[in-house]
Amino acid sequence: RSSWLLLAPLLTPPVPVITAPPCSLCPEGAHRFQWIRNLVPEFGISSSHVKVLSSPAEFYELLKVQIKAAKQRVVMASLYLGTGLLEQELVYCLEETLEKSLQAKGSPDLRVSILLDYTRGSRGRKNSRTMLIPLLQRFPEQVRVSLFHTPNLRGLLRLLIPERFNETIGLQHIKVYLFDDNVILSGANLSDLYFTNRQDRYVLLRDSPEIADFFTELVDAIGDVSLQLQQDDTVQMMEGMVHPYQGDKGAYCEIANRRVMEVINSARTRQELLHAKTFHSSQPGSSLLSQQGSQASGSLKPEPDTWIYPLIQMKPFGIQIDEMVTETLLTEAERDARIFLTTGYFNLTQAYMDLILGTRAEYRILLASPEVNGFFGAKGVAGAIPAAYVYIEHQFFSEVCYLQQQERVQLQEYSRPGWTFHAKGLWLYLAGTDLPCLTLIGSPNFGYRSVHRDLEAQVAIVTENKALQQQLHQEQEQLYLCSSVVSTSTFEQPNRYVKLWVKLVTPLIKNFF
């Protein structure tokens, strides 16, 4: 594909952007990625509000602390909630916090909204639903549990495909956990593996009310077009809402698109107005004077040196912002720029592969070795999935070698005894720099499923702050430290043997995992 085609949607932004002369306080022009705000809201914050976490245990402890401290809202979107003791402790934390809110004077302020996938959350007799029903029964006015059901699983297909396999058609894959004005973005689900020995990525955005409001509204919008869990473990749609698999598919997807785009566009308008009000006062100098006055009184927030852009991908609803931004980032990466890209499931779309192989930047791609693949040792057909990933990896490596790109595009395999690997995202280092200025973090895996089937969200974090850049660099280094470079000899090892039937089947099913 031509890079101009990729950039075409950006050349005609959906609404006019504010154009005003730059000023000393205005972040406009401060970084080269501000074209992203033509598509999504831009949230300027201080880097002191951003903390990068490194371990599953740290992530789990932070979840518990944040739940217990919440006063106004707890919003959690995940693929599923596990059924073990660690997950039960999270539910107990929610129950305890809701109880305190109930006992407070006046009407309880705390609201809990949980969004999960219907098929994954309903798997087995004991599942995400049975874990959460006690909360619904005890706090019916304060708790909402929404279960997203893909509109693509319907009719005869829905009747014939068995449990677990029905999850291949499409999922709610967004992972965001927010507590009052604190937001955790991650690729991790709410399950004991992700709290103990499955490596992922996690970033905390503290005291960020506008970002928290955005993701609250986004989860509410998806929740509104999802099935609502009832106290008796039945589900029903909100009154007047088209059903995802019984109603008209086109009408359902149109409503879902409208609800989600309303959230994106209204937040974008709000942020543009805030930007104009803060940095572009109609009277010259008044903005600067008012800010200096506020600074003297200690009421002004620190000048932003970090910008957050939420990137949403919901192809079933015709929303493909994340795909567009990711392709443009890869297209525009300059010679000698370095991109560190990681995914737990290496199954890149053809467009991403073409861009990696056909552009100028250096790539270091981190992926799971077979032993740390989440499907390693699984029963039945799923047990062959790591071999399918090996086959896909080998094909890509062979293409790299054929094009003589081994120096520019390098594959590295994550390996750590007793652990599995689930980290995803990228870090971008501009040419001549030692620290990243941009990272993508969230739920997408850069594969066919993420682009075409599932509901996904991540954020682009752009920062000029050296301390935050150092945090991101250390995060990248820590992950890559547990890896070894892939070479021709890698695929000669006995554990890389791929059976013929797997080679034959993989091209037919690679778009489903």
Automatic annotation (TrEMBL):
Keyword Cell inner membrane annotated: no
Domain of life, source organism: Eukaryota
Organism of provenance: Sylvietta virens
Catalytic activity: a CDP-1,2-diacyl-sn-glycerol + sn-glycerol 3-phosphate = a 1,2-diacyl-sn-glycero-3-phospho-(1'-sn-glycero-3'-phosphate) + CMP + H(+)
Location of the protein in the cell: Mitochondrion
Alphabetical keyword list: ATP-binding, Lipid biosynthesis, Lipid metabolism, Mitochondrion, Nucleotide-binding, Phospholipid biosynthesis, Phospholipid metabolism, Repeat, Signal, Transferase
Annotated PLD phosphodiesterase domain residues: 168-194
Region (Disordered): 279-302
GO cellular component terms, semicolon-separated: mitochondrion
Cleaved signal peptide residues: 1-19
Origin organism lineage: Eukaryota, Metazoa, Chordata, Craniata, Vertebrata
Listed EC numbers: 2.7.8.5
Name of the protein in question: CDP-diacylglycerol--glycerol-3-phosphate 3-phosphatidyltransferase
Family: Belongs to the CDP-alcohol phosphatidyltransferase class-II family.
MF GO annotations: ATP binding; CDP-diacylglycerol-glycerol-3-phosphate 3-phosphatidyltransferase activity
Main location group: mitochondrion
Task performed by this protein: Functions in the biosynthesis of the anionic phospholipids phosphatidylglycerol and cardiolipin.
Gene3D superfamilies: Endonuclease Chain A
Compositional bias of kind Low complexity: 281-300
GO BP annotations listed: cardiolipin biosynthetic process
Listed pathway(s): Phospholipid metabolism; phosphatidylglycerol biosynthesis; phosphatidylglycerol from CDP-diacylglycerol: step 1/2
